Amino acid sequence: MLSKRVIPCLDVRDGKLTKGIKFKGNVDIGDPVETARIYYEQGADEIVFYDITASHEGRGIMLKVVEKVASQIFIPFSVGGGISSVKDMRNVLLAGAEKISINSAAVKNPSLISEGAEAFGSQCIVVGMDVLKVPVSKKIPSGYEVVIHGGRKPMGIDALWWAKEVERLGAGEICLNSIDADGTKNGYELNITSLIAENVRIPVIASGGAGHPQHMVDAVTKGKASAALIASIVHYGEWTIPNIKKYMQDKGVKVRIVW
Predict the structure, then answer these.
(1) What is the pLDDT of residues 92-145, one digit of tens each?
(2) Which residues are registered as beta bridge partners of 119?
(3) Which of 228, 230, 162 is nearest to 3 (CA)?
(4) Contact 60, 66 (CB under 8 A)
(5) Which catalytic residues are annotated (predicted)?
(6) CB neighbour burial string for 126-150, b if at least 16 within 10 angstroms, e if fewer
(7) Is 130 an active-site residue?
(8) I need a surface site. Which of 10, 136, 154, 221 has the fewest CB within 10 A?
(9) Would you call 28 helix, strand, or coil by DSSP?
(10) Checking phi first, is residue 30 left (phi over 0); if not, alpha (psi -120 to 50) or beta?
(11) Alpha-carbon gap, residue 214 to 209, rounded angstroms
């Protein structure tokens, strides 16, 4: 059985680590480079870095920040935000990232997924999905709609359909973020997490809502996720990564222990 991964997420705005609730009210809370180094030293399995306003502002990723973060950590490092071409992907990989995360750009140009997978391998391509719970309809039969541009633009696309499509196009992983749960610390949205995880063959990362290690246990057991993305729970010092992993291990979840 593969170990379940614990992945801190660093949302960055104007070069600073930031955090909001349900994609709103973001406040700056620290330095992303220093924070990434601390999480690496604590035993994070991977780190995800999102430039949260790049797509909305129509600009490229901040490569200097990527280079600085990559110089401090020696675990897989995924970067997203403002990546809209294979050239952008190449630049991010050359700056030190191991994986590319595409979200809004993939929805607007699905061929970007297959182009990236062909150029760099599926293992490098992570498709981020921001989803919002909506009434079940003929157009949205799962009851979860894909939203882009940092939660600003609903797309009328069913989340389950899109998950299957990104797998077909060559994505190696899905990072599924519930806008409803994001930053609330009330737990992941397990319904859509398990629905997608059970219907695709690629790993699914649960994202949005972690406030206690039990939520991570639920994400990888009830939610069938391969990994749990975390932010507020560690950013504000409520739990450390070693404590989270010890809790998960005590609950019978296989995790990578580094101490």
Answers:
(1) 999 999 999 999 899 999 999 999 999 999 999 999 999 999 999 999 999 999
(2) none
(3) 228
(4) no
(5) 11, 130
(6) bbbbbbbbbeeeeebebbbbbbbbb
(7) yes
(8) 136
(9) strand
(10) left
(11) 12
d(CA 235, CA 36): 11
Q: What are the counts of helices (DSSP H) followed by strands (DSSP E) for the chain?
A: 11, 12
Asked whether the predicted pLDDT for residue 15 surpasses 90, the reply is no
State pLDDT tens for residues 209-239.
999 999 999 999 999 999 999 988 998 888 9
Task: Name the amino acid, one letter, at 158.
Answer: D
The answer to whether the beta carbons of residues 166 and 189 sit under 8 Å apart is: no
Residues 151 and 22 sit within 8 Å (Cβ to Cβ): yes
pLDDT in tens, 145-172: 999 877 789 999 999 999 999 999 999 9
Q: Is 45 a catalytic residue?
A: no
**Full set of structural domains in the chain with CATH:** 5-250 (3.20.20.70)
DSSP letter assigned to residue 3: P
pLDDT one-digit tens code per residue, 20-39: 554 444 555 678 888 899 99
Question: Of 45, 130, 158, 182, which one is the catalytic site residue?
Answer: 130
Q: Pick the catalytic residue: 11, 51, 182, 218?
A: 11
